[in-house]
Amino acid sequence: MDIINKIGRRKTSVARIYMAPGKGEITVNNRALDVHFPFELHQIVVKQPLTLVGVEGNYDIKINVDGGGSTGQAEAARMAISRALCEFDAEHRPALKKEGFLTRDPRMVERKKPGRRKARRKFQFSKR
């Protein structure tokens, strides 16, 4: 029984997954998927690569996520699962690449600049 360990990132979120053939159980931080991600859209995002290649329910996945928010964590997990699927079967790679699941999204939050309220937002101007 081979367990594959992969990592996925999005914004400041990092997802480390352990994937092995099994019954299709997905746990996130030692909790059920629907407990960690109560919003259904995030659950769908995590399962997208499995649904795309038609292997939903064939692998047990243990996900450890930290950093960022729920959307970033879900997309980081999606990337890690996609990478693991490619290692299990190289035939999945073209379909996953076409959907963009293997591409690291480089967008990060811009840093706050001195003399500004946020990264680009200036303080309110008062004429008088």
UniProtKB/TrEMBL annotation:
Keywords: Ribonucleoprotein, Ribosomal protein. One of its GO terms (molecular function) is structural constituent of ribosome. GO terms for cellular component: cytosolic small ribosomal subunit. One of its GO terms (biological process) is translation. Residues 103-128 are annotated as: Disordered. InterPro entries: Ribosomal_Su5_D2-typ_SF, Ribosomal_uS9, Ribosomal_uS9_bac/plastid, Ribosomal_uS9_CS, Ribsml_uS5_D2-typ_fold_subgr. Pfam families: Ribosomal_S9. Residues 103-112 have a biased composition (Basic and acidic residues). It comes from the Bacteria. Residues 113-128 have a biased composition (Basic residues). NCBIfam families: PRK00132.1. HAMAP family: Ribosomal_uS9_B. Belongs to the universal ribosomal protein uS9 family. This is Small ribosomal subunit protein uS9. The gene is rpsI.
